[in-house]
Every structure is written in C-alpha cells, then in structure tokens.
Amino acid sequence: MDKKQRIILTMLELVVEQGVHATPMSQVAKEAGVAVGTIYHYFKNKEQIIEEIYSMICQDFGIVLMANVPEDESFEKQYRIMWLNLYNYFLGNPLAFKFMEFVGVPPIITSEIRLKNVVHFVNIKNKFLTAILKKDIRDVHLRLVLQMTMGNVISATRLKFKKELPMSSNQIDDAIKMSWDSIKV
Q1: What is the pTM of this model?
Q2: Are residues 89 and 173 in the same domain?
C-alpha cells in the first residue's frame, strides 16, 4: 500500500472511531507511518481527504449495486439483487458503512460534494427511472424511491451490526419484501 492509500485508510479508520473534529492530522500521520508534511503533499487539508473517501465509497456503491444485475429479469428480481449487493457491501465494509452513516452527511459532506458524486449513481438512477416509466414501481419522486430503498438496507445493516437481530436469510428476505412492497405498484 502506498503512502496516499495509507493516509486515506488511516483517516477513514480514525474518523469513524473518533469523529472528524477529534482526529488531528498529527495522529493520522503517526498512525499512517508518514510525516505530517507527506499528508500535505497529497492533500490540501483534512476536508479534502474526507471528500476523497466519500467519493471512493460513492464510486464503490455505483459499481457494487449494479453488479450481477441481469437485464433480462423483472425489475423485482433486479431490485432484490441490488438490495443484497448493497447489504453485503455494507457487511463486508463496516468502515464504509459507518463513514457514510456518521461522516458522509451534511454539514461535513456539502451539497456541492454530493453533486460532484452523482455521476457514480447514473446507472442506478436510470434503472429506477425506467422502472417508474414502465410502471414496475410507484410514480413518485426518484429521490424518495432511492431514499426509501437505501434506508431499508441501512436499517437492516444496523440491526445486524448492533446484534439486535441476527438477520438470518428469512429476516433478510422479509426486509427485501417489505422494501419492495413500499415501492411496487
């Protein structure tokens, strides 16, 4: 792993554990095994590192959600795969999940930064817009549909991480069905 990657990963770990404001650059440097000046060689400031982490995770979302989604299946089956893709991504990347929960939100992540990262979600947005046009799902504002979908996956992931439910395969199936029922026509 190169120095820039170590800085990013260390910042990710520390801000998830301590919060953005409680994570000084000196600690990032020490734990990444680099000089403070090395951090400033790659990044202007802490905010730029946070923005890069946010962009990397958004890019992952855009790729992961659409992985193995068959074009020739019903939207309901595609939805199930997308839901599971995101859920499994969160389980396999707890730091990314916690970052998006606690750091990847306003005011830390501004509207401007969020807009810059919309490009990573174009395929997902188009898939859902097509489903709305084909009347596979409710004709409501796209942002609402996506938020309801994401919120369900996030809630299921929280239940698993907090050990409030084991999220057995039956519970996952129930969560997907409830999520689907909330947007289907």
Answers
A1: 0.93
A2: yes
